[in-house]
Each structure stands twice: as structure tokens, then as C-alpha cells.
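#lab-general

N.A. 3:47 PM
ok so I finally got the sequence cleaned up, no stray characters, all 401 residues accounted for. can someone with queue access submit it? mine expired

B.Y. 3:52 PM
send it over

N.A. 3:53 PM
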Amino acid sequence: MDGPLAGVVVLDLGQIYNAPYATLLLALAGADVIKIEPLGGELTRARRSINLGAGMGFVILNSNKRCVTLNLKDARGRELLIDMANRADVLVENFRPGVMDRLGVGAAELRRLVPALVYASGSGYGQTGRYRDLPAMDLTVQAMSGAIASTGFVDSGPVKSGPAISDFLGGIHLYGAIVTALYQRAVTGRGATLDVAMLDSVYPSLMSNVGPFIGAQIEGGPPPPERTGNRQGGLAESPYNVYPTKDGDVAVICLSEAHWRALTEVMERPELVTDPRYADKAARIANMDEVDALVAEWTAVRTTDEVFAGLRGTGVVCAPARSLREVIADPYFRERGLIEDRDVPGMGTVPLIHTPLNFVDQPRIPLDAAHDLGADNDDVYGDWLGRSADQLSELRADGVI
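B.Y. 4:20 PM
back already:
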């Protein structure tokens, strides 16, 4: 089934989460993505030998890709990659800077041979700058970006974000850069060399925390706390928190006076609207602890469902704080098409993810679960590149593919 990127051929040398998520988005937009792995398999595929859960990321992030193996340390392997690059539109990799150059197939060399190629590199700290050569994983980029410093409570130490925000924000920006470069190429005919750093990608997400720091510096005032728990990062809204219920927790936010009036009506505390301590946002922010205590007193004697049901339809921003089990099982994601429950050989039913990018007037591309290691070697190297059966046998025997 055709998608918006039908006809685009992508060589995916990505590993773990960052580049594989970018190429998953490309594949589910219709691109022909060829995942190129070392002979032992990509790192997250290899994690399956430790336990099934450790390798589940590979299964979920590598749907709709053709899977081949290739030894780039062998000259014949590099020759195969160059042959593929001549037929491809995009090459994506997220090795440490310099790895592909040392192998002789970096951006400068491949774009010299294939000027129209879009060569996209994802990395922790970019191909330039003082941090270029630092090894990077999601945790360390969270630490470098300030994401860890801004997560947690005032009286706690820094805490990493539960989601792999650095990997996936980097992957999303990498996807955006690739699609932008493809548009440029369609207009000008020029290829591109793309350099997308995870650190650069995380920083803009800290606006609620960074903004108040910058403002304090300009105004000469004291800096705000780095960590605000479940309160708004800039402490600029109240109520804005996660409150306890009889059976869990619920998030409640009032962004306007209308929200506050609606909340007090549901709480059956209309007098709070005219109480000078809570009468407007500035007053509520000044008395934030008291506001939180009032809301928590109301939520604590009700179930999460009761609080959520009471506030739905009022305009008050509210949601239950759900467990992973609840989230994964939520029919919403099936209704939206983000999750599809598919039978995966050797695993049973797996909730695979589709793209969050919806083209309303086009049907979704059917999911094809991640292929086995090297499953498409004959298809890609034989049918696509034209290597004979004897040549393929020799390449296998010599450890090239």
C-alpha cells in the first residue's frame, strides 16, 4: 500500500532507539527501509538472548523494514553498501561520530560518490562541538541536558525521566530533518548531510524550567527551584499537581478562572472563588501549598474514577495517573490505530506500534512485524543489487553478509 513516502529508499544502519524510531516513521509513511545489521545482529536484537522483554524494543521499532546483514569491516561489505547508496535516497546511522568515516563510508565519501544522497546522522552530542566524542546514551544525555536536574521534588535528588526522552526526541527530530531534506532535494536536486544531536533535541522541551531561569537572570532576581515535583516547572499555575485518591492518583490543572470556578463547583466549595487567598491566579500561586491541600482533601476521599468523572465536561484539565498495564490495554490506542495487536512468531500476541503521524485521507500501511536477522539478504543483495546465487554463497561463506 502506498504512503506519502512511497518510492523513497532508506538504508537504515540505526541501532537501539534513536535512529530506528526515525526509520520506523519513514517506513510507516511508505518508504522502503532496508535495515542493515552486523552479522551478529543489532544491539537491541541481541538483547533478546538475555530475556524477551529486553529485546522487545527491537520487535516494536523495526516493523515494516527489510532486514539484511553486512560486515562493513570487509572491503566487499563496503562495496555492497556503496552499491545500495547509489540506488537509495537516504542513509541513516547513529554510530558515534567518526565510526563511519573510519570505515571509509562516512558522509563525505558517500556524498562524493552519490551527491543526491541524504546522509542523516543521529548522535548524542552532534558531529561538531566540544562534546562530540563523548559516548552517549539516553541517561547521560538526560543528565547533560538538565532534564534530570529538573525532574523530582525540591527536597529530592535529581531523577531521570522514565521514558527514553533523549532517544525518542532525537529520533523525531532526525525524522523531521530527513523529510525536510527530501523536500529540499525534490525542489533543488541537492542531497544533504544531516547532523541531529539528542542533546539539541531535548533542550527545547525544558521551556517550562529554562524560561523562569532566564527571566530571573534578566530581572536580577533569585533563581526558581530546579525541581518542582508534579507542579508546573515555572510554578506559574495553581492548582497544577497530582493529587491522591482512595485508589490511586489524579492530575488536575486549572489554567483559567473559569477552570477554578468549575473545580470549586464540583468540590462544592463555591466560597473559595471569592476568598481573597484564592480569588485569582496570582493569589493561588502565592498560596500554592494551601490550594494543593484543599484539592487533595477533596480527591483523597473519592476514587480516581469518581474524580475524573466529576470533572469531565467541566473544562478542567484532569486525568487519572495510570499504570503501564492500564495504558497498554487502553482501547484508545487501538481506536486511533497507534497500537495493533499482532501475532509475532515465537512471541504470541505483541502490541506493536504504528506511526502517530496520521494522514486522514489515506489508509494506514499494514504492519509487518520485524523480520529475522538477515531474512532479506537474498531479496536485497540478489534481486535488488543483482548479485548471483554463487556470489551470495561466497559472500556468506566469507562472512561478508
